[in-house]
Design a protein that fits this description.
Number of domains: 3
Bound molecules: flavin-adenine dinucleotide
Radius of gyration: 21 Å
Largest sheet: 7 strands, mixed
Helix content: 25-40%
Distance between the termini: 12 Å
Structural class: alpha/beta
CATH superfamily of the largest domain: FAD/NAD(P)-binding domain
């Protein structure tokens, strides 16, 4: 049977390795650190087992749901509690995000909840721009929104949402990564509003994202156990610098390998466990995305105990807040506390515990000639990464 060596034991590496092993192939995963999972990780804060990285996944396409079912975790898939996410604009009060949108791109630029965020004049301008004939569809989400809806819609609404989800500006996000069907929907409907409306109508009912009771990190031991059950081998603490020297076909599942094209992006995550009864009513729903120029350093805040029922129960009256930063604040916990107070509109006198994690997301690397899976090629986000890893395994097995 074919031999495969998988470099990197994050989600992409584990998914591709498991699928190859399930077909009887001989597979070894090499992971540089002493821990599997990469950006899907667990930590304890205030005695609670929490996600230190990814905490949800997009249900689009059904691939993650199907995988969790195979791993015996299907019964633990949970939807977030109902309620909108909010936006903290550059100035003024926080507002609920518009309901009918794709990554912040509204289906109707003139809807009341859009007008409240971008202003009447910007909404009208967007409506007029989007009636023009659809020429060549731009490559990036930023160019697309600028062209069809104007700068104000991009800066005030779409950029904060894209940054919160993908940690990048819409100018760097290819249209396909916003939604695999967006380009076709644009061509068919001839307008951005029409395309978003069509994709929203086609989406299954319910939330666009889901989580796992107990935390998304539970997928990591489940994948590793299944891989080993299927005969796959896992080697921890082995950094691979020359994949060509490995046995069999090398599959690169380590973002940034072999040589990153540019310095990586940094994401700092500060988690606070607090006591504050005023948060019981979830004053900002599941949390806020923050527009550039707002008077806080955080780029997003997730009110995790308002978002996940299982966590609300586990936290037993306490609240869990996750704040993310592009640059580490000098005093992360003090800054996160002050930012959380400003964003949520409540004082937080009792911080029970806090944790600060720094992630570096390597930029895409030139990996021509290699088989590559994971964030390098699929972009940030578990749904796209799992789907691409599954496809790659199927292609390799079909060779
Ligand atoms: C704070 C944060 C929150 C996020 N939240 C979400 C979310 O809620 N939902 C969502 O869908 N996505 C989220 N993401 C994104 C998601 O976590 C990542 O896109 C995904 O986990 C990346 O998986 P990967 O396997 O491609 O890479 P990684 O997770 O980076 O795994 C790569 C692995 O390769 C190893 N490695 C690197 N170099 C070598 C080498 N030379 N030899 C051997 N091993 C090597 C690394 O140690 C690592 O374990 C979040 C990301 C961050 C940082």
């Amino acid at each position: 049977m074919a031999d495969f060596s998988v470099v990197g034991g994050g989600i992409a590496g584990l998914v591709v390795a498991r699928r190859l092993a399930a077909s009887g192939a001989s597979v070894t995963v090499y992971e540089a650190t002493d821990r599997l999972g990469g950006t899907v990780a667990r930590h304890e804060v205030g005695g609670l087992a929490l996600d230190a990285g990814a905490e949800s996944f997009a249900v689009r396409g059904g691939v993650v749901v199907a995988l969790l079912g195979e791993l015996g975790l299907g019964g633990d898939i949970v939807e977030p509690r109902p309620g909108p996410a909010w936006l903290q604009p550059a100035s003024g009060d926080a507002l609920p995000l518009p309901a009918t949108a794709l990554l912040g791109i509204p289906a109707d630029p003139l809807a009341d909840d859009v007008v409240r965020v971008v202003s009447v004049s910007a909404a009208r301008a967007a409506g007029e721009l989007d009636t023009r004939p659809m020429g060549t569809i731009p490559l990036s989400v930023g160019s697309l929104v600028r062209e069809r809806y104007g700068d104000a819609m991009l800066d005030r609404l779409v950029a904060p949402v894209v940054h919160g989800v993908h940690s990048m500006h819409p100018d760097a996000l290819p249209v396909e990564r916003a939604h695999p069907g967006l380009r076709a929907a644009l061509a068919e409907t001839g307008s951005l509003g029409g395309a978003v409306a069509r994709l929203r109508e086609a989406a299954p009912p319910g939330s666009a994202v889901a989580g796992i009771r107990g935390g998304v990190h539970r997928i990591v031991p489940a994948l590793a156990d299944d891989l080993e059950r299927l005969g796959g081998e896992i080697r921890l603490g082995v950094r691979i610098d020359d994949p060509a020297a490995l046995r069999g076909t090398a599959v690169i599942a380590a973002p940034g390998m072999p040589t990153p094209a540019a310095p990586g992006r940094r994401i700092d995550l500060v988690t606070l466990v607090v006591e504050q009864a005023e948060l019981d009513g979830a004053p900002r729903g599941s949390g806020l995305l923050v527009a550039a120029g707002a008077p806080v350093a955080a780029r997003a805040l997730t009110h995790a105990t308002a978002k996940w029922e299982w966590l609300r129960e586990a936290a037993d009256g306490r609240h869990v807040l996750r704040l993310s930063y592009d640059e580490a604040p000098a005093d992360p916990v003090a800054t996160a506390r002050a930012d959380a107070e400003a964003l949520l509109g409540v004082e937080l006198p009792v911080v029970i515990d806090a944790a600060h994690v720094t992630w570096t997301r390597p930029s895409a690397a030139a990996a021509s000639g290699s088989v590559v899976v994971g964030e390098t090629v699929a972009g940030s986000g578990l749904a796209g990464i799992v789907a691409q890893a599954e496809r790659t395994a199927a292609d390799l097995l079909a060779r």
